[in-house]
Design a protein that fits this description.
alpha/beta, Rossmann fold, five-stranded parallel sheet, 7 strands, 14% strand, Ester_Hydrolysis_Enzymes, SGNH_hydro_sf
Length: 214
Amino acid sequence: MKKVLLIFLLVSIFARGQEANRFANEIEAIQKKYDTLLDTSKETTVFAGSSSVRIWHDLQEKFPKHQIVNAGFGGSQASDLLAYTDELILQYKPKKVFIYEGDNDISAGKDVKVILSDISQIISKIREQNQSVKIVLIAAKPSIARWNLKRDYKRLNRKFKKMSRKDADILFVDVWKPMLNGRKVKQDIFIEDGLHMNAKGYAIWYNAIKSFLE
């Protein structure tokens, strides 16, 4: 029985490693970009997470007073960010880290407890480097494409909010409510796929997030 359990654990670890490796080229591209752009004499804020972060193309322009690293990589889940915490977050020695993960996790059928465990491990790794780093958890967003999963997303967001209440250095920014029209998700804030946001959607995010930076 012990041998079977050990084999299962080894296979699971190997599978997660293989899955994370599919992002290797994208991670390398992010690193090369900021090797030339980053001013190490300035404080840095990292935005990490999935494609909702990655395709926020004017993120730096929206917050010109801050040095921003956009470390988003499309299709990622919290476990992927955990695998690349060193490359995408720690190497930039940030003073503040915004994390957007959970969206793809819920869509993939992951349990909320698993997501929270991965997020907690990411936070622990960040704090091993610097205890004073502020962590900002961005709520999982609603979308047309994944509206059928709204209960799971709302549960995850409640857990994120609870984490922030227990720890003064973990903040929670709610982008869920501003993206709703009553009890339905707004229809005009997404591109054709009904999942990723257009300029109107990112304007909502900007308004929700700006006070956490300024």
